Amino acid sequence: MKETHQYGVCQNLVEHWDSLLTQKTVLAIMGPTASGKSRLSMALADCLPMEIISVDSALIYRGMDIGTAKPTLAEQARVPHHLIDILDPHESYSASAFVQDTHRLVEEIFARGNLPVMVGGTMMYFNALQQGMNALPQADEAIRQALQQQWLAAPDSLHTQLAEVDAVAAKRIHPNDPQRLIRALEVYLASGKSLTEWQQAPTKQALSEFCLHKVGLIAQDRARLHQQIEQRFMQMMAQGFLSEVELLFQNPRLNADLPSIRSVGYRQAWSYLCGEIDGDELVQKGVAATRQLAKRQLTWLRKEQALQLIDPFETLLDEQVQQICQRLHEKVLSANAERLKNQNISKI
């Protein structure tokens, strides 16, 4: 059991640890990029027995460390991390794969007596986990690679082909969005049913095995987040981000249309290496794209229900930890009281 003397409220939570695990509560730390999610999770790990499940569509890729602000090897040694470095950048991953992996990992982490803590800003993954997903067919690498080659040879042909088999999806997907075009065609070619037909089928229910306690790191002053985003991007550049992307650029299996390379920062660095923009534009476009990503993440977050809000720029790190532990402790006590009440009623 972790030492928790620095946070008395965390000690209170640890004293009810078995109840917390029995109630199958999973902590989820959500927030826009550069809001301090990883920093907070590492502080929590200093006082709670926990393991981290990454909720980040870029951290899954090997060789993409600086531009994703991936936890260091020392941090990963301090606390177990999952869904980091599980694929090479040319490989694909989906929200449905994330949901399956997360359910498996949560069960395994609980079995080890630890708290699963989901940390990240890929809100599509969080949404898929909570709302459930249509049972789309699994990715077919052979079909996907053929479609990727088709896109490189004749980009316009993909949208034309999709319009012939799924007019609804073709109307929704932009002709210059290869990731979604390829997935829609892949679904049809692999199953014989259009993506629209699959999406109109009944949605599979999720989260029957556990519940989320959601923490949202949201700054009241957006300018402070924007400043942090710019500072972090400049730090990435100083740490050798371009050298990292140059290694990816030399990989013949990678191209600008892959999901990995379309990640914020990597897309702009790739354009720089292709000679499409200069160094100043790389920084300007990279910072702007990161801010746009943060805006989209915040839009998702505002739709979340039962979110424990913390301003990461106005709340000291120690206080953030204490607020989360206090809320978890209160939930445990409330659930225990309700259980005892029901037991007493059943005896009457």
Task: Provide the fold topology.
Blueprint: H1 8-15, H2 17-22, E1 25-30, H3 37-45, E2 50-55, H4 73-78, E3 81-82, H5 95-111, E4 115-120, H6 123-131, H7 141-153, H8 155-165, H9 167-172, H10 178-191, H11 195-199, E5 211-217, H12 222-238, H13 241-249, H14 266-273, H15 279-301, E6 307-310, H16 317-347
Parallel strand pairs: 1-4, 1-5, 2-3, 2-4, 5-6
Helix pairs in contact: 1-16, 3-16, 5-6, 7-8, 7-10, 8-10, 12-15, 13-14, 14-15
Shape annotation: globular
Instruction: Outline the low-pLDDT stretches.
Output: 1-5
Largest sheet: 6 strands, parallel
| Strands, total number | 6
Helix vs. strand class:
alpha/beta
Q: CATH fold name of the largest domain, please?
A: Rossmann fold
Report how far apart the termini are.
39 Å
* CATH superfamily annotation of the largest domain: P-loop containing nucleotide triphosphate hydrolases
Radius of gyration: 22 Å
CATH architecture of the largest domain: 3-Layer(aba) Sandwich
State mean pLDDT (0 to 100 scale). Answer: 92
**Domains counted in the coordinates: how many?**
2
CATH class of the largest domain, named Alpha Beta
